[in-house]
User: Fold this.
Amino acid sequence: MPHANADVLQGTLDLLILTALSVEPMHGWGVAQRIQQISRDVLQVNQGSLYPALHRLEQRGWIAASWGASDNNRRAKFYRLTATGRKQLHAEVATWRRFSAAIELVLAVD
Assistant:
């Protein structure tokens, strides 16, 4: 059963990354910071999960990367949402909302 949990977490991480990048392009550390900030410090993405997910999303064509300078003038890879990624984000949000509504229905049973 742990494999099913890993799939849900992976899919959730993809959704969070796509959402963070929907606002503006940013480097990996910025994506992690944005997710943590928006979630009011509830969600923290570690680098061991973040960078493989960014690579996977780039391979799928949902995000694109280019090199640039970070705020502290260091060379960093910046990620941006592609048109395909934006469509995928809308599909993922719809799926998540159906899924979370179903979970709420199950939890409401007394």
